[in-house]
């Protein structure tokens, strides 16, 4: 750019204090990776400012490209200030960064990350000193000012992220506000106090008309920046000059993962679409592609599965309004992933942890009511990474406590429904054989445990895991006690009287091994068979239904996509399968995201099942009243 009227203005230091190379505001974000911080702050700004008249989701485009140094507006004057700073900050912390910036300014090219948003308001308002509260002034020059409108970026420190992620310590903004068709260009750099041509200058530089000494005047219309196309619709472009993560993330896949980790709920809800453009790679992240991008990342996919919960728990919390909790109980996870919290922008804020919940799970709490969004924003520090109750001494503790109690109790209720209670009884191992049944079943169609004639309850009665390692028992929450009575075995020659044990077994008759009509047909007829060794399988007894039927719940997870028939087996004494025993199944119901479906049954076989790899499937087996069996999979 050759227009000599514009350049970077550095205010004279006068009697103000010294400013070192390290910006205190940038320290809010330095603790995390630059790409993570850039994604959170720019994504939040875009989601907080949807266009008033736009339709469809907010759209963001991250584009990485090489740009000629001479195409940077005001680069000649900026280079002189950079050289002075690099020379005069020797011995100070952050000096190396200033030296790197000065050296980069002398190169012919640099890597630039442009972040653009669409269907947003753009930077409305004026840059004039008389318009300090305008979005244009707040983003380009504001610090620490808070607007009481519930938007996350109201602290005015998010602008520090751009220079933090820039090896040139400089960021450019271009924007078309939705209330006008004229584009505007602004730029900001943060260096250190320095002397140049006999004058002492402050650390910050603003791109403005240098001929106007008593106010700011940004460049209109905005020129084309390097290889990037001119903006033609409302929204904002942020150019990070010398993007410091370019070599580490040349295809912007880390950016994509950071968007998933922080804005998954917004993307899943169809409120945000993200595009990545880099040499050799072009990807789109939206509600349709989200599951594919999470599948190779276990933790991300677990939270995605939680968001697919068709029946989230709901509650109304004082000062927050209606909240929803989406839950995914999954014992194949390596650890508990806890509960991500969000408010209206659907950006990850806090992480609620509950040590009393022993199952492995991932959950998402959404508090998106207008009153909840405004109140919870007040509890957040500048990084927007937690809800701090101390920020509202009057109600904060109570509100956060109510939210956590709701999450904890909802998790416990769902766990009791899906997998029952798992309890460790101290000292019980002294009365059990040295080799457990579970150890013998690894990699084979395993056999559930439990008593088929016991009363119905929601505790787990069986665990079958094909091709996976046995798990350590999970301790029961403190205070949960179980009375255990131990019967010792009879010893020959003892003096005690003996008693005959209780007779077991029902009234059903067993078929002989060779009964039934001979089969017919040719090879290839019929559905394929799903084998037990390809599944993780649990079963437990549920309370009787309204018609008095006994209900056994199956929880099945396939190791790979499976379709076909699944044969159940009744288990006899010692957990051994009874090959010829016919279970009195009256009906079977499968629970799907869009509702319940009846499964066709033939004897012990559930017909035409479709199981998705890694996805838990619940099936309810109904039998006549009083009929209760331990079940296995053939």
What would your notes on this structure say?
The chain is α+β, with helices and mostly antiparallel strands and about 625 residues long. It folds into 3 domains: about 5-35 and about 65-245, no CATH class; about 305-420, no CATH class; about 445-470 and about 530-634, Immunoglobulin-like. The protein has helices at about 25-30, 35-50, 75-90, 95-105, 135-140, 160-165, 255-270, 290-295, 300-305, 370-380, 395-420, 435-440; strands at about 5-10, 60-70, 110-120, 170-175, 185-190, 195, 200-210, 235-240, 270-280, 280-285, 315, 320-330, 340, 350, 360-365, 460-465, 530, 535-540, 550-560, 560-570, 575-580, 585-590, 595-600, 600, 605-610, 615-625, 630-634. The strands form 4 sheets. Strands 1, 2, 3, 4, 5, 6, 7, 8, 9 and 10 form a 10-stranded mixed beta sheet that branches. Strands 16-18-19-26-22-23 form a 6-stranded antiparallel beta sheet, with no helix packed on it. Strands 17, 20, 21, 24, 25 and 27 form a 6-stranded mixed beta sheet that branches.
Report strand %.
25-35%
Low-confidence stretches: 148-158, 434-488, 491-517, 519-525
End-to-end separation in angstroms reads 75 Å
Counted up, domains total 3
The percent of residues in helical segments reads 10-25%
Nearest-angstrom radius of gyration? 32 Å
Shape: elongated
The number of helices is: 12
């Amino acid at each position: 750019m050759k227009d000599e009227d514009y350049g970077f203005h550095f205010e004279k230091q006068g009697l103000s204090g010294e400013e070192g190379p390290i910006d205190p505001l940038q320290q809010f974000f330095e603790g995390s990776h630059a790409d993570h911080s850039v994604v959170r702050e720019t994504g939040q700004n875009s989601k907080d400012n949807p266009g008033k008249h736009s339709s469809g989701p907010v759209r963001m485009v991250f584009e990485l490209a090489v740009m000629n140094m001479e195409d940077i507006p005001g680069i000649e004057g900026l280079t002189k200030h950079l050289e002075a700073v690099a020379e005069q900050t020797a011995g100070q912390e952050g000096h190396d960064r200033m030296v790197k910036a000065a050296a980069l300014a002398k190169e012919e090219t640099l890597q630039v990350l442009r972040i653009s948003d669409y269907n947003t308001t753009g930077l409305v308002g004026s840059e004039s000193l008389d318009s300090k509260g305008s979005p244009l002034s707040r983003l380009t020059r504001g610090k620490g000012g808070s607007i009481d409108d519930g938007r996350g970026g109201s602290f005015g420190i998010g602008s520090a992220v751009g220079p933090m992620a820039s090896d040139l310590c400089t960021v450019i903004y271009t924007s078309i506000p939705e209330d006008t068709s004229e584009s505007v260009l602004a730029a900001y750099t943060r260096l250190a106090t320095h002397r140049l041509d006999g004058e002492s200058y402050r650390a910050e530089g603003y791109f403005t008309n240098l001929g106007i000494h008593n106010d700011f005047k940004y460049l209109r219309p905005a020129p084309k920046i390097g290889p990037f196309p001119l903006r033609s619709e409302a929204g904002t472009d942020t150019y990070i000059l010398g993007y410091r993560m370019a070599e580490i993330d040349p295809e912007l896949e880390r950016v994509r993962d950071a968007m998933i980790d922080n804005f998954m709920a917004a993307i899943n809800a169809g409120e945000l679409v993200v595009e990545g453009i880099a040499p050799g790679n072009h990807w789109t992240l939206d509600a349709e592609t989200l599951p594919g991008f999470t599948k190779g990342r276990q933790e991300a996919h677990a939270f995605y599965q939680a968001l697919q919960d068709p029946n989230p728990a709901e509650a109304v919390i004082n000062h927050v309004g209606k909240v929803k909790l989406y839950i995914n109980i999954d014992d194949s996870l390596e650890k508990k992933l806890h509960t991500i919290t969000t408010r209206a922008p659907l950006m990850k804020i806090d992480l609620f942890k509950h040590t009393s919940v022993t199952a492995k799970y991932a959950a998402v709490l959404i508090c998106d009511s207008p009153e909840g969004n405004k109140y919870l924003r007040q509890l957040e520090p500048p990084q927007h990474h937690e809800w701090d109750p101390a920020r509202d001494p009057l109600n904060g503790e109570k509100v956060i406590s109510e939210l956590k109690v709701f999450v904890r109790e909802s998790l416990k209720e769902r766990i009791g429904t899906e997998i029952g209670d798992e309890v460790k009884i101290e000292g019980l191992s002294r009365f059990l054989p040295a080799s457990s049944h579970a150890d013998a079943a690894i990699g084979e169609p395993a056999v559930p445990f439990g008593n088929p004639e016991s009363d119905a309850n929601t505790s787990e009665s069986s665990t079958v895991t094909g091709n996976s390692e046995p798990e350590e028992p999970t301790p029961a929450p403190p205070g949960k006690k179980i009375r255990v009575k131990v019967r010792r075995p009879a010893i020959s020659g003892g003096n005690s009287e003996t008693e005959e044990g209780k007779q077991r077994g029902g009234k059903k008759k067993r078929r002989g091994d060779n009964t039934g009509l001979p089969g017919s047909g040719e090879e290839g007829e019929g559905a394929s068979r799903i084998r037990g060794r390809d599944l993780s399988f649990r079963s437990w007894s549920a309370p009787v239904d309204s018609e008095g039927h006994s209900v056994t719940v199956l929880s099945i997870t396939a190791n790979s996509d499976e379709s076909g028939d699944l044969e159940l087996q009744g288990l006899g004494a010692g957990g051994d399968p009874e090959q010829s025993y016919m279970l009195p199944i009256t009906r079977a119901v499968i629970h799907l995201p869009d509702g319940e479906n009846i499964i066709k049954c033939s004897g012990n076989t559930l017909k035409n099942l479709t199981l998705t790899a890694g996805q838990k499937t619940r099936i309810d087996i109904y039998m006549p009243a009083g009929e209760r069996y331990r079940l296995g999979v053939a």
